Amino acid sequence: MNVMEVKEEVLRARLRTEDPEFQKWEDEHHKLESTLQSIDTHVYLTPEEEVERKRVQKLKLAAKDKMMEMIRRSKVGRA
Fold it and tell me: Which ranges constitute the DSSP H helices of the chain?
């Protein structure tokens, strides 16, 4: 892990304990990851399952984007 990754992980840990909004998005991201893993256990997906998988992927990405934006804002605030 390089210095930037360590700093980001420290920042994540701080946000995890201090920011309820960050906690909410992180929990949502984990739930969506779990849902995707469950969907991916199927050998074949029905068209409906394919649509649901894409929907969950987009929601998961949106949650990650929110968390990354919060990390960026926190970095700027501490700079």
Answer: 3-18, 20-39, 47-78
